[in-house]
Design a protein that fits this description.
276 residues; 6-stranded parallel beta sheet; alpha/beta; 6 strands; DNA polymerase, domain 1; globular; Rossmann fold; 13 helices
Length: 276
Amino acid sequence: MTLSATRLQAVVFDWAGTTIDFGSLAPAGVFMEIFKQEGVEITIAQAREPMGRAKKEHLRAVLEMPDVKLRWASTHGAEATEADIDRMYEKFLPMQREVLAKHSKLIPGAVQTVDNCRSRGLKIGSSTGYTRELMEVVSPLAKKQGYEPDCVLCSGDTPAGRPKPWMLFEAAKRMDVYPMDTIVKVDDTVVGIEAGHNAGCWTVAITMSGNELGLTQDEAAALCADERAARKTAIEQKFKSVAPHYMIESVADLPEILDEIDGRLQAYGSPRQARS
């Protein structure tokens, strides 16, 4: 199928919490352990708050939180320096690599959704806050489960990561896809949705399989109806601050959204008109 410039051409997926690692568990636990080793324990909420950023920027963002900054200064006698961040980042990489193999299972429906995208003639891009070294662990495991994107953009491949648009621009270049509003960005983090907007893409936020809920698949399934509804509402409210075009519970729900976006593109004849 040949796609015109007024039709969708590509989808760019995040990794942890979007296509792999239900609950985005691998990064959060490692961040908590690193701060514990520094004598300044952080909460799971603090560990998750900057999720989606490059990992060194993530460390810096946690250290800028008023409560963490105060406790760090009390413990170490001064605020954290760049040398401290560099030291913690050096510890992060091997620790993260060690746990990745346990947290690289594909999220249910991911393969079927990607197959659906390819049946539409769409190219499949991906971006992540993981480094290339870390993705050398993740990518082969994903491939064994049936997921292999056309390109993988990692932390360090562009001048800066999310919320800046550079990884999306680079993905578009590598896939030879334009204009940007024929691309859909799917992400489970606020900064990922911001990056999508900044790049001029359609944006789809993942609410229940990713970082914002932060539960394993079994834990999520065990929530009572009222608790599940309350958490979903809170997550949707948080995402509304960055106004994604659509919100879905998991990647398995994406095909219906693609139908809607593609219908809008065909009806209006121009991506920019369809987005207005």
